[in-house]
Specification:
Largest sheet: 5 strands, mixed
Number of helices: 11
Order of helices and strands: EHEHEEHEHHHHHHHH
Structural class: alpha/beta
Radius of gyration: 23 Å
Oligomer: single chain
Number of strands: 5
Strand content: 5-15%
Distance between the termini: 61 Å
């Protein structure tokens, strides 16, 4: 710590503040202290850091780190969100940009909303994939067969969405305004939780479809979805 100007506390979220309490008395004056939590602000993680003459930052890679030994190899071009003290902010952002990564300042008041957006794009998609796999298993597929069968459509859809955005990548019965197919989907789902998830996401797709095809009338589609929602 004595030799470093910038110190990263890359520990689980629940341990960041404890580690800070351990090191705050170890000569941190003038140093930049960073954590990598997506939801914690610098002030939440490093309370009273200014009293120690140090500068606190949250430096969050918008990336699902699943292996602490290998994930660094995949960080090329990953976006980073930075929040913290204004004094050294440009220095921290320049450090990240110098590695070739896009970086943006984020306000402390928006950290939780930002992290919710990240979780929606990453973790919640895993929940959707799991439901799809379960439905395939009911059709007679093994889990492995279902994953192999769905992999091309999962990967292809995410690639198209990342490249063109969700509106211009949208396909399927909602986009086609195929009400009868959507009604059949709802009828085949076995429990209320599955139907609720299908309905809520499909209503979101109706919004996208209207933006993409303003000349189409999606009132019947929305009515069918909301009618089933009330059951």
């Amino acid at each position: 710590m004595r030799e470093c100007d910038i110190i990263f506390l890359t520990v689980p979220d629940g341990s960041i503040r404890n580690v800070w309490e351990d090191i705050r008395g170890c000569g941190v004056e003038g140093k930049i202290i960073c954590h990598c939590s997506g939801v914690l602000t610098s002030r939440e993680a490093f309370p009273a850091i200014e009293e120690k003459g140090a500068f606190g930052y949250s430096v969050h890679p918008l990336f699902a780190v699943s292996d602490k030994f290998k994930a660094y190899r995949e960080l090329t071009d990953v976006f980073f969100a930075v929040e913290g003290s204004e004094e050294k902010l440009s220095e921290v952002m320049s450090l990240i940009a110098s590695a070739g990564n896009p970086v943006k300042k984020i306000e402390a008041s928006k950290k939780t909303l930002y992290h919710c957006a990240a979780a929606t794009a990453s973790n919640l998609v895993c929940g959707l994939a799991d439901q799809s796999l379960e439905l395939m298993e009911r059709c007679g597929f093994s889990r492995e067969e279902a994953l192999a069968a769905l992999s091309p459509i999962l990967i292809g859809n995410m690639e198209h969405t990342a490249r063109r955005g969700p509106r211009d990548s949208l396909t399927g019965p909602v986009e086609r305004n195929d009400v009868s197919t959507v009604e059949k989907h709802l009828d085949c789902l076995e429990n209320k939780e599955e139907r609720q998830l299908y309905i809520l996401l499909s209503l979101r797709l109706v919004k996208l479809a209207r933006e993409r095809h303003p000349d189409r009338n999606y009132a019947g589609m929305e009515e069918a979805l909301r009618k089933d929602e009330e059951k």
